[in-house]
Amino acid sequence: MTDVLPQPDCSLKAVCEPLELEEPGSKRPPNTGARLWGRVRSKLLRQKLDPQTVETKNWHTDVIEMNGIKVEFSMKFTSRDMSLKRTPSKKQTGVFGVKISVVTKRERSKVPYIVRQCVEEVEKRGIEEVGIYRISGVATDIQALKAVFDANNKDILLMLSDMDINAIAGTLKLYFRELPEPLLTDRLYPAFMEGIALSDPAAKENCMMHLLRTLPDPNLITFLFLLEHLKRVAEKEPINKMSLHNLATVFGPTLLRPSEVESKAHLTSTADIWSHDVMAQVQVLLYYLQHPPISFAELKRNTLYFSTDV
């Protein structure tokens, strides 16, 4: 995973885009901006940080030049282990890294405010965006939104309305990724893995619905809220190119990946995370996305108890 941030005095967007607006008599070749940005992206994709740089976690600076324009940018490598780690926040006053039950109780809401606002903004102006939730937003924009939500800033709504939609989608993903335990909980993780592997359709249905009923109410309500949102996004697949499977691939690991402590109990190596378990996590979410609408009230009325030990 490579985080790319421009130097403070050099914004890639500010440098590249205006190059297309040169005066008619300019000697600079046409499409310089697009070509320069393409070269920067190509450089980022090819960049291989040496082991010493990775180990020291230092920033690596590089320069791209074209037609008299110089772009300087910095990047650093974050190991996959670190990017997967769920770290509880030391401050319980914010929302990132704080248990969802704590946040909903403090807000006196059923679904965290950050989830509701990000979903509303995506549905308002991003539901037809090609690659929504798949294309990453700018890291600095996402961190800015994170800070605003953590501080419960009064300018949240204004900032959301002005922010790039991919940054808002990225903020929502980051919120779920940074929960101290996954939305579908550490305790139920083994059961979800077993349930999705059942071959009998009726047994799988009973098991997967029972597991939802077992979730704490804030987790269940938030999950169902997100589920319906993702289904609405998938309805626009002809435009946004995001199918149910694509969305499950993006959100499955985010909603199910166990915390560090639980990971040690269920996973033997980093490779496992990115093979068998990831595929199962995707399949769990895909199962619910493909399922007919699930009602919280109906789930709670159903008192069927089913054991996954079959």
TrEMBL record:
<feature type="domain" description="Rho-GAP">
    <location>
        <begin position="98"/>
        <end position="296"/>
    </location>
</feature>
<dbReference type="InterPro" id="IPR000198">
    <property type="entry name" value="RhoGAP_dom"/>
</dbReference>
<dbReference type="InterPro" id="IPR008936">
    <property type="entry name" value="Rho_GTPase_activation_prot"/>
</dbReference>
<dbReference type="GO" id="GO:0007165">
    <property type="term" value="P:signal transduction"/>
</dbReference>
<dbReference type="InterPro" id="IPR037769">
    <property type="entry name" value="Abr/Bcr"/>
</dbReference>
<dbReference type="GO" id="GO:0016020">
    <property type="term" value="C:membrane"/>
</dbReference>
<dbReference type="GO" id="GO:0005096">
    <property type="term" value="F:GTPase activator activity"/>
</dbReference>
<dbReference type="Pfam" id="PF00620">
    <property type="entry name" value="RhoGAP"/>
</dbReference>
<protein>
    <submittedName>
        <fullName>ABR activator of RhoGEF and GTPase</fullName>
    </submittedName>
</protein>
